[in-house]
């Protein structure tokens, strides 16, 4: 494992930042759909009206997250998997051990990255441009609040989303790769397709949690003190109790997931081989 972390670190630094920059306008379009319940063409028009200068407002937190996330998530999952393999012996299947290790890694990931996501969502909300115009002003504002409504706003739904998502991702990607290799697909392409397809399915399944997080974290002010249940009721009512409206922006998740997690998984699998 000690040999795995350095190449993963450098790969994350070199390759994770580029997809994050490329996909950020797509991510921001999805966020505006989640927040304002608008069709994609209206979200794009809104961003176009704000201009190219503001298009990348809020890019720093996700850029840092994507750079560090691969190293933390994959490295921690690998360590937990090693410990489970030693303790459980043959009691659990390989896929079950990977899923359980992914669940634990997802919890730690939520603890580390919730503040990043909070800052990112405040910056992406155009309604905050006047009273918190810069990242520094956002940090000052959130630091003045209690953790539960400041940096760790929406921590519970983020933990549920990340833990379940990581568990499913690590539990499913191995079997998918095995099926693809059995069909004669080259290893690198198998890894890319496995990461893209698996993350796409998981992102769509857990998309309502992402919408809830976006709506909870985007505001700074009197509304930010409401709890998870109250916020979910408000969100569900604002979407006219319609699943279709709740999933606005979900179609773009496919594009984002295919690019980011397909590349991430291909990099990870290629770095595993020398240490195996």
Automatic annotation (TrEMBL):
<dbReference type="GO" id="GO:0051724">
    <property type="term" value="F:NAD transmembrane transporter activity"/>
</dbReference>
<keyword id="KW-0813">Transport</keyword>
<comment type="similarity">
    <text>Belongs to the mitochondrial carrier (TC 2.A.29) family.</text>
</comment>
<dbReference type="InterPro" id="IPR018108">
    <property type="entry name" value="MCP_transmembrane"/>
</dbReference>
<protein>
    <recommendedName>
        <fullName>Solute carrier family 25 member 53</fullName>
    </recommendedName>
</protein>
<feature type="repeat" description="Solcar">
    <location>
        <begin position="93"/>
        <end position="179"/>
    </location>
</feature>
<keyword id="KW-0677">Repeat</keyword>
<keyword id="KW-0496">Mitochondrion</keyword>
<dbReference type="Pfam" id="PF00153">
    <property type="entry name" value="Mito_carr"/>
</dbReference>
<keyword id="KW-0472">Membrane</keyword>
<dbReference type="GO" id="GO:0005743">
    <property type="term" value="C:mitochondrial inner membrane"/>
</dbReference>
<dbReference type="InterPro" id="IPR023395">
    <property type="entry name" value="MCP_dom_sf"/>
</dbReference>
<dbReference type="InterPro" id="IPR052465">
    <property type="entry name" value="Mito_NAD+_Carrier"/>
</dbReference>
<keyword id="KW-1133">Transmembrane helix</keyword>
<feature type="repeat" description="Solcar">
    <location>
        <begin position="186"/>
        <end position="274"/>
    </location>
</feature>
<keyword id="KW-0999">Mitochondrion inner membrane</keyword>
<keyword id="KW-0812">Transmembrane</keyword>
């Amino acid at each position: 494992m000690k040999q795995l972390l350095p190449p993963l670190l450098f790969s994350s630094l070199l390759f994770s930042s580029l997809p994050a920059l490329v996909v950020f306008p797509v991510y921001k379009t999805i966020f505006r759909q989640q927040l304002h319940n608008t069709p994609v063409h209206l979200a794009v028009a809104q961003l176009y009206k704000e201009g190219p200068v503001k298009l990348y407002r809020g890019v720093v937190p996700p850029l840092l997250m994507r750079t560090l996330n691969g190293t933390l998530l994959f490295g921690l999952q690998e360590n937990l998997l090693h410990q489970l393999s030693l303790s459980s012996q043959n009691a659990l299947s390989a896929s079950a051990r990977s899923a359980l290790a992914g669940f634990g890694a997802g919890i730690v990931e939520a603890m580390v990255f919730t503040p990043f996501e909070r800052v990112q969502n405040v910056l992406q909300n155009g309604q905050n441009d006047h009273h918190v115009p810069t990242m520094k002003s956002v940090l000052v504002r959130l630091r003045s609040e209690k953790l539960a409504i400041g940096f760790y706003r929406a921590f519970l739904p983020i933990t549920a989303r990340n833990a379940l998502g990581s568990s499913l991702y690590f539990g499913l990607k191995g079997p998918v790769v095995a099926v693809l290799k059995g069909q004669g697909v080259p290893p690198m392409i198998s890894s890319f397709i496995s990461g893209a397809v698996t993350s796409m399915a998981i992102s769509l399944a857990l998309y309502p949690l992402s919408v809830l997080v976006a709506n909870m974290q985007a505001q700074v002010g009197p509304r930010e003190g409401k709890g998870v249940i109250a916020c979910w009721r408000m969100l569900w009512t604002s979407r006219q109790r319609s699943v279709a409206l709740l999933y606005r922006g979900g179609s773009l998740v496919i594009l984002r997931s295919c690019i980011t997690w397909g590349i991430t998984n291909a990099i990870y699998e290629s770095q595993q081989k020398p240490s195996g």
